[in-house]
Design a protein that fits this description.
By secondary structure, the chain is of the alpha/beta class. Among the domains are: about 290-460, no CATH class; about 475-570. Helices cover about 25% and strands about 20% of the residues. The longest helix is centred in the C-terminal third of the chain and has 29 residues, at about 540-570. About 45% of the residues are buried.
Length: about 575
């Protein structure tokens, strides 16, 4: 190497002592923003993981870099000053906390032996891509550009990246980053986007939080395709201005919640589906997905996702009171090994269950409103349901009432969500309203008749008797033609019987002949009198038959009145 140029006295702060040749290069390059590249060109040899075997001429003290950033050296006229170093081993803690940095900091593929401290600092863009750090602190910092952590390894335990309250005027790039502990971004404000594609956050042998970003505001998208987390991913109260993409991500709550997104707001798409690569790895979560009160502006897509509750827990997806503008998709192989709770949610588009593969799950759509209707197919619904209060538009696939009623029979009981056969009136009424909206009143009556039968089955036996009679005679008012049929049968049978058994003529001054049809009608129709019983009478068995006809007539009359009442009021 050539001889080291000796800088003029006073240029380098005395506290820094004598600079090494490499540090001199960095110092001289700073005023013009030139790159000092210490890499050999061999990717394996230049890996920061192997910095322990790097030669001494690749070492730069952190305090030298900090001095440059904090104004120890001025920019050259007509140039933009910057610290731009690649492949260095940085010794000591890099501290610019609470300072004002007007130059770019770019330390690529470097190895930091200690922490990088930007707490409370105001800086231009910071680029630590490809580097290995022990810890990064940017609590309350303001970066007036981008923060680039792509391919960076942050190896320290605990809060490895502590950036609560961070402000970034540009974007935060952290694709393929590996963070051993927590990545903390509570109440951070990122004007651009946040990328965490292929990142790994947390460690399988630790517990706690992985990405802790409650209250974070992202102006554009949060892109986290194929993200892998160990520990709870927290986004409560976060606001994302465009899309949230977790395609192909793997979230492991380590025995606790996998995704905590209470009151999360996403203005654009939210996709938790397989990624688009050749292997098509699905989104999977081991631990509960929590998004109660969340708002999804352009749909929530969980197609093909695999959700598994934490050991000892029942709920896989907790999405109560959420709002989904556009569609909620739980199909195309969506599998939940536990319970799915959508209670009280509002879906302005459609609920898509086509291809849902969760037969043993429990799906609660209690008090859910689906404005756009439901897309389903035979066999896609789980075996256990809570349909009470579900309001929906049309089904995409028409099926008759008997097939739809099978879903209602999967209603769980009030006391135990593992037991089906519970009764709720509203699911029947909603299904009947659906058929009426199609103009198919016969199917609607079938549904409402099934409701009456299901309700009757819950009564004591002695209270079920009148219901059975109403059911047989007129189908609780939903089969009015049945009453006419019964009346005709009784009239014919009674007339035939009395035609064979002659009565006693009690009115001697009456010369009319006996009419068995009118005699039967006199006893069968309570409100109409033809006068036959005043002229002709029976004794013994025929008299008992007349009593039976009278009782049946009154019963049939009451049933017909009930049928008429239901027909007039069922709408």
């Amino acid at each position: 190497m050539g001889r080291t140029t000796v800088l003029p006295a006073g240029t380098v702060p005395r506290r820094l002592g004598r600079l090494s040749e490499t540090e001199h290069r960095v110092w001289r390059a700073f005023p013009r923003g030139e790159l000092v590249d210490l890499r050999t060109g061999d990717p394996e040899a230049d890996d920061p993981e192997r910095a322990d075997v790097w030669t001494a001429d690749r070492t730069v003290r952190a305090e030298v870099i900090a001095a440059l950033l904090l104004g120890a050296c001025s920019a050259s006229a007509g140039a933009v000053a910057a610290v731009r170093v690649a492949g260095a081993r940085v010794t000591g803690e890099l501290r610019v906390d609470h300072g004002r940095v007007s130059s770019l900091l770019q330390l690529r593929q470097c190895r930091f032996d200690a922490a990088v401290d930007l707490e409370g600092a105001v800086t231009e863009s910071v680029d630590l891509s490809g580097s290995r750090l022990l810890r990064l602190s940017a609590y309350g910092a303001h970066i007036r550009g981008t923060l680039d952590l792509r391919d960076t390894v942050v190896a320290g335990p605990g809060r490895s990246v502590h950036a609560d309250g961070l402000r970034v005027d540009g974007s935060l790039f952290a694709s393929r980053t590996r963070v051993a502990g927590s990545f903390c971004l509570i109440n951070a404000q990122i004007t651009g986007q946040v990328t965490l594609a292929d990142a790994v956050i947390g460690h399988a042998n630790t517990s706690g939080k992985s990405l802790n970003a409650g209250g974070m505001h992202v102006g554009r998208s949060l892109l986290a395709q194929r993200l892998r987390t160990h520990g709870e991913l927290r986004l409560p109260g976060a606001r994302i201005g465009s899309s949230l993409l977790l395609a192909g991500a793997t979230l492991d709550g380590l025995g606790d919640t996998a995704l905590y997104g209470d009151a999360l707001t996403v203005a654009g798409d939210t996709r938790l589906w397989p990624d688009g690569s050749r292997d098509g790895r699905p989104f999977s979560a081991r631990g509960q997905i929590r998004v109660p009160g969340a708002k999804f502006g352009n749909g929530l897509d969980l197609s093909g996702a695999h959700l598994e509750p934490a050991p000892g827990r029942a709920v896989a997806l907790h999405a109560m009171r959420m709002t989904v503008d556009s569609a909620l998709k739980l199909g195309d192989g969506f599998r939940a090994d536990g319970e799915v709770h959508l209670t009280g949610s509002r879906i302005t588009g459609h609920l898509d269950l086509v291809g849902m593969a969760s037969p043993d799950a429990y799906l609660s759509v209690y008090s859910v409103t689906v404005d756009g209707g439901i897309r389903d197919e035979p066999g896609c619904w789980p075996k256990r349901l809570n349909l009470d209060g579900l309001k929906y538009g049309p089904f995409s696939d028409y099926r008759d009432a008997r097939e739809r009623l099978d879903l209602i029979r999967r209603q769980v009981t009030r006391s135990d969500s593992t037991v089906t056969g519970g009764f709720r009136a509203q699911p029947y009424e909603q299904l009947a309203a659906y058929y009426r909206s199609l103009g198919i009143d016969g199917e609607a009556r079938t549904v409402l008749l099934a409701k009456q039968r299901a309700q009757r089955a819950r009564l004591p036996w002695w209270r079920r008797v009148p219901g059975h009679l109403l059911d047989v005679l007129v189908g609780y008012g939903y089969r009015p033609l049945r009453a006419i049929g019964w009346a005709a049968v009784l009239l014919v049978a009674g007339s035939a019987y009395f035609d064979q058994v002659r009565p006693q003529h009690v009115a001697t001054d009456d010369t009319s002949s006996f009419n068995p049809v009118l005699y039967t009608a006199d006893h069968l129709i309570p409100v109409i009198r033809f006068g036959e019983p005043d002229v002709w009478q029976y004794h013994g068995v025929p008299e008992a038959v007349t009593v039976v006809l009278t009782v049946l007539g009154w019963t049939l009359g009451i049933a017909i009145a009930a049928a008429a009442s239901r027909t007039l009021t069922r709408n």
